[in-house]
Automatic annotation (TrEMBL):
<keyword id="KW-0460">Magnesium</keyword>
<dbReference type="InterPro" id="IPR005000">
    <property type="entry name" value="Aldolase/citrate-lyase_domain"/>
</dbReference>
<dbReference type="InterPro" id="IPR040442">
    <property type="entry name" value="Pyrv_kinase-like_dom_sf"/>
</dbReference>
<dbReference type="Pfam" id="PF03328">
    <property type="entry name" value="HpcH_HpaI"/>
</dbReference>
<keyword id="KW-0479">Metal-binding</keyword>
<dbReference type="GO" id="GO:0016829">
    <property type="term" value="F:lyase activity"/>
</dbReference>
<dbReference type="InterPro" id="IPR015813">
    <property type="entry name" value="Pyrv/PenolPyrv_kinase-like_dom"/>
</dbReference>
<feature type="domain" description="HpcH/HpaI aldolase/citrate lyase">
    <location>
        <begin position="9"/>
        <end position="238"/>
    </location>
</feature>
<keyword id="KW-0456">Lyase</keyword>
<protein>
    <submittedName>
        <fullName>HpcH/HpaI aldolase/citrate lyase family protein</fullName>
    </submittedName>
</protein>
<dbReference type="InterPro" id="IPR011206">
    <property type="entry name" value="Citrate_lyase_beta/mcl1/mcl2"/>
</dbReference>
């Protein structure tokens, strides 16, 4: 079954019909691998992808360290998604990626399916998690149903975003044009995901960087995402992982600030606030400092 809940820094997509790429990804530095049964698989190869993915998971040696294994199912086709879940060895799956997630009712449905399948297989331990991609349709971004996603769910681990499917809904090419329209759309969805994840109390997972050869652009994306508050990001190639991990790690300035805050708290345990470099620091800042130091491996 899945490990105790941690926050992966990286989620690496792998096509569900490629055993070779799965084997390579499993030995990479990715914290989590997404075995994809949806968009990276041609419609004629869906059945083959499910077979290859199930075989890969069944062959996994649970005694050896490995990344978390997640599976993206064809959730926009509920009957297909349920059949996929029923065929997967959930004992080896940390979580399910729910694409085109647009309402709490869809979360509940996925949760009920997983309840039944875990009972069927007598799975004990941490429940199979869910990560939802919540910007792939207009209805998943605005309206009453979209707002229900702020309620979260016991299985929910995080929300992520993307603009490829949304661009198709809007009837526009998902590429940079003569203006900054493509960037503006991406930034608005990125901010929407960040706030929705915070409201639901789950991880905010930044979207992919499509040009896996441009590591300089990836580093800039990671800097921007980190400063917004993202701690995780999706990837499409193992070559992106080192840059991604370095870019999402707390910066030296943030760590130095967090250490100063912790020192003040330790020296003055009964104080509600402090002055630090001319700024007030109080309980919300104490909490952020603790999270930064935890991510930096300083848990003392």
């Amino acid at each position: 079954m899945s490990n105790q809940h941690t926050t992966p820094r990286s989620y690496l997509f792998v096509p569900g019909d490629s055993a070779r790429k799965m084997d390579k990804a499993a030995t990479s530095s990715a914290d989590a691998i997404i075995l994809d049964l949806e968009d990276s698989v041609a419609p004629t190869r869906k059945a083959e992808a499910l077979r290859v993915t199930a075989d890969f998971l069944n062959a996994c040696d649970s005694a050896r360290p490995h990344p978390e294994f997640w599976v993206r199912v064809n959730a926009s086709q509920p009957a297909d998604a349920l059949a996929e879940l029923a065929a997967l060895p959930l004992a080896h799956v940390s979580g399910i990626i729910h694409p085109k997630l647009g309402s709490h009712a869809q979360l509940e449905r996925m949760g009920h399916w997983l309840d039944a399948l875990e009972a069927r297989d007598s799975i004990q331990g941490a429940p199979t998690g869910i990560v939802g991609i919540i910007t792939e349709t207009a209805a998943s971004v605005v309206g009453e149903q979209a707002r229900t996603l702020t309620r979260g769910h016991p299985r929910l681990r995080g929300y992520s975003w993307g603009t490829e499917d949304l661009s198709a809904v809007l009837g526009r090419p998902p590429i940079a044009g003569r203006t900054n329209a493509n960037t503006a759309l991406a930034q608005s969805m990125q901010m929407h995901c960040l706030m929705m994840a915070a409201a639901a109390g789950v991880d905010a997972i930044d979207s992919i960087s499509a040009n896996f050869r441009d590591l300089e652009a990836l580093a800039a994306e990671c800097d921007y995402a980190r400063e917004l508050g993202y701690t995780s990001k999706m990837a499409i190639h193992p070559a992106q992982l080192d840059t991604l991990h370095a870019g999402l790690a707390p910066g030296a300035e943030a760590i130095a600030w967090a250490r100063q805050v912790r020192a003040l708290v330790d020296a003055n345990p009964d104080a509600a606030s402090f002055q630090l470099d001319g700024r007030m620091v109080d309980q919300p800042h104490f909490n952020v400092a603790a999270r930064i130091l935890e991510r930096a491996g300083e848990t003392g």
